[in-house]
Amino acid sequence: MNSTEMEGQEQIIALETKLSYLEDFVQKLQDVTVEHTEELERLRAENRLMARKIRELSDLLEGDVPNRKPPHY
Predict the structure, then answer these.
(1) What is the CA radius of gyration of the chain?
(2) C-alpha to C-alpha distances, 16 to 10, 19, 23, 29, 49, nearest whole angstrom
(3) Would you give the distance in Å from CA 17 to the centre of its chain?
(4) For residues 32 and 34, what is the distance between their CA atoms, to the nearest angstrom?
(5) CA–CA distance, 71 with 11 (Å, rounded to integer)
(6) What is the 3-state secondary structure (H, E, C) of the chain?
(7) For residue 69, is pLDDT > 70?
(8) What percent of the chain has pLDDT over 70?
(9) pTM of the model
């Protein structure tokens, strides 16, 4: 093997090494994205539940407000 072939081989090894690191990095990004998506969905569900409970509490308290103007005012 001459020096040109060795340099070419070293370049291929360097590219394969970089590719391996990039593949690992992309996999980690995908894992974090999935984790964040799951967390976001959980928070959205929690937010919907809290909003529903606030509406229910608000509806319960409606009758306790004296001298409230009717909605057409």
Answers:
(1) 31
(2) 10, 5, 10, 20, 50
(3) 30
(4) 5
(5) 77
(6) CCHHHHHHHHHHHHHHHHHHHHHHHHHHHHHHHHHHHHHHHHHHHHHHHHHHHHHHHHHHHHCCCCCCCCCCC
(7) no
(8) 86
(9) 0.62
